[in-house]
Design goal:
single chain; about 650 residues; alpha/beta; seven-stranded mixed beta sheet; six-stranded mixed beta sheet; 27 strands
Length: about 650
């Protein structure tokens, strides 16, 4: 056994601007004037070949100004954030079905549900605050069903755990749908009133019998049948998911398959029944709502809509490009091709969070110019030409954020930022001024009020009302009223004009993982989060936790015995893209042939060297959840005196 130092790397807070005089030279401290001038000159040469990475941990106001910088100052819709890495398929799937990309229910409704389905979600670890609402629901008599390849901490609270094979979510959903139809439990009245393409859907799922689903998914037919009947018979049911559904090469199709079940049973558009994608960071929902995505303007207004563009062009005195920009995945591909030459990266760390991380770093190094605005010198910041020290959005900034239930909440500055660190919005506006656009905002509230003037969904949310109600869910178009806590109640109207466009069933086919297991790579690796750590560990790694044990490759007891390895023994884990060394941990929650790792400690074990950049063609999200690997014992090291 090898005993390496497994203490996570700690990151020092950025307090002064940094610049390089040449790409191969180290950083030196610079004044703000020099750093901003250098950044503006570098970006000015890249109009037409520029991308903006915005931040899902920063405020709505920052994201609004960041996407405005991309569209007005740089003349491009190439703006995106880590939403692409995680929940872009949720937005795409919900938008295709309902025209809106947000979760349909409030957290309170989880507490009142009769059935709660957690699909591909270890919310107990990844969303511990949300899981308190789940526990209240269980306490109130709700039944929890967990659909997950691992018997997670969440599954331990479930009435039934359905341990499906990785990448078989669509067969599972189709088998549930078929069973509901054959058992006569489909909500015919809702289907006829509010949906379209039902007959095509019924034909699609017909081959997926319970016995076939058992063979493909590995879940007993009786367990699938039980979930189908429980969900369909419930008066109120909530279907929740996270990255176990979205981080696949067909993530959007997975989301559509789950939405189909809500359409089939009428579990959407009314209190207590809905669909809930759980966001992993404090403002992933808000970043998209503010337009920090390549296909939507603030308020989730389609860039291809001429009336929407005209409204923003009038408000911003600019011309908005009448086409979608590149998403994060496409921007990385454009770096490889040499057609994207400069990036302004705010609060993101794609050098360690992207799939196939070695490839991501190589592509970023090919850029002509990189500006990073952050609170730490991350691995991505280490690649930059200019580094700008910013404030921490949760403690050093005023503004708002939007959580997974679409609730906009106030954030207030509590502490003074260190050194010369500046507000994100102030930095962006200073850069905009150097590039010919004088934006004057007295404070974050002024930015918010500009957003309200162009987004009907947010118009009724003044700072005063947000404080009064301790947050308000969108849509809130009226400053004197509040909308229901759930979305899409229109679908239940008896008046066709009020119902609007029917919600279409998603006609999606099973498509197995791209990275197939075989004799050379016989183990399926899936990735996720642990309770004690956060994303790439830049923030959480600096804080001690009694739960933290660093990165391990987790194996079931049978596989550990097969490979002849024990807890703590370091092994080589290899995929078709790279290899890492990590110690073994044995977890009885895993089944033979399945391994688990996290992305929390990339400085010690860079798990994303193993993952595959097989992307969802609709949403651009990579298949982090399904890599093929092999485990190899390391040679015994002997020491000669």
């Amino acid at each position: 056994m090898r005993n390496r130092d497994r203490t996570p790397k700690t990151y020092t807070r950025l307090t002064h601007p940094l610049v390089r005089d040449a790409r191969d030279e180290p950083f030196r401290q610079a004044t703000w004037e020099e750093a901003l001038d250098r950044a503006a000159r570098g970006l000015a040469t890249a109009r037409g070949a520029f991308g903006m990475f915005s931040c899902a941990r920063a405020t709505n106001e920052m994201n609004y100004v960041a996407q405005k910088f991309a569209r007005v100052v740089m003349g491009t819709n190439n703006v995106d954030s880590c939403n692409r890495t995680c929940h872009a398929p949720s937005v795409a799937g919900l938008s295709a079905a309902f025209g809106s990309g947000g979760g349909t229910s409030s957290y309170e409704e989880i507490e009142q549900a009769d059935v709660i389905v957690m699909w591909g979600s270890n919310a107990r670890f990844a969303h511990p605050i949300f899981f308190q609402h789940v526990l209240k629901g269980i306490h109130n008599g709700g039944r929890l069903y967990a659909v997950d390849p691992r018997r997670t901490s969440t599954a331990e609270w479930a009435e039934s755990w359905l341990g499906l094979n990785v990448g078989t979510d669509i067969p599972m959903a189709h088998a549930i749908g078929r069973e509901i139809i054959h058992a006569g439990l489909a909500n015919r009245a809702f289907i006829e009133r509010a949906t379209s393409d039902f007959e095509e859907y019924r034909e699609l799922v017909e081959p997926w019998t319970l016995s076939l689903a058992e063979k493909v998914t590995g879940v007993p037919a009786a367990a699938i049948r039980e979930l189908a009947h429980a969900y369909a018979r419930a008066e109120r049911a909530q279907l929740c998911w996270t990255l176990g559904i979205t981080e696949h090469h067909n993530g959007t199709d997975n989301v559509r398959a789950l939405i189909n079940l809500s359409l089939l049973t009428g579990h959407v558009g009314r209190y207590g029944s809905g669909l809930q994608p759980l966001r992993g960071q404090n403002n992933v929902q808000g970043g998209g709502d503010m337009g920090a995505i390549p296909n939507r303007l603030p308020g989730f207004q389609d860039i291809l809509d001429p009336e929407a563009r005209l409204k923003f062009e009038s408000a911003w005195d600019t011309v908005i490009q009448p086409h979608y920009g590149m998403n994060l995945t496409e921007m990385f591909e454009a770096m490889e091709e040499g057609t994207l030459k400069a990036v302004y990266c705010i609060g993101e760390n794609p050098a360690q969070s992207e799939a196939d991380s070695e490839q991501a770093v190589r592509r970023m190094k090919a850029l002509d110019f990189l500006v990073v605005q952050d609170i730490f010198l991350t691995k991505t910041a280490e690649l930059a030409d200019v580094v700008l020290p910013a404030t921490a959005g949760w403690a050093e900034t005023d503004g708002t954020t939007t959580n997974s239930e679409r609730r906009v909440q106030r954030v207030r500055r509590a502490v003074t930022p260190p050194g010369q660190a500046r507000e994100d919005i102030d930095i962006i506006c200073k850069l905009a001024a150097r590039l010919g656009h004088e934006w004057k905002y007295a404070d974050a509230e002024a930015v918010w009020n500009e957003l309200r003037s162009v987004s009907p969904d947010h118009y009724g949310m003044t700072y005063e009302r947000l404080a009064q109600h301790q947050g308000i869910q969108w849509p809130c178009p009226d400053p004197d009223a509040l909308e229901p806590t759930y979305l899409h109640g229109r679908l239940w109207s008896s008046e066709p004009a009020e119902r609007g466009r029917p919600a279409p069933f998603g006609l999606v086919q099973h498509d197995p993982p791209v990275d197939l297991t075989d004799e050379e790579f016989p183990i399926r690796l899936t990735t996720g989060r642990r309770l004690d750590s956060y994303n790439t560990g830049v923030q959480s790694g600096s804080f001690a936790s009694p739960l933290r044990r660093g990165e391990y490759v987790e194996l079931c007891p049978e596989d550990a015995e097969r490979y002849g390895v024990v807890v703590g023994e370091e092994v080589r884990i290899s995929s078709r893209r790279g290899a890492v060394v990590a110690p073994v941990w044995i977890d009885t929650a895993l089944r033979p042939g399945l391994a688990f790792m996290t992305m929390h400690f990339p400085d010690e074990v860079d798990t994303n060297q193993l993952t595959i950049e097989a992307n969802c063609p609709i949403a651009g999200t990579a298949e982090f959840k399904a890599s093929a690997i092999r485990i190899e014992k390391l040679p015994v090291v002997t020491y000669v005196r």
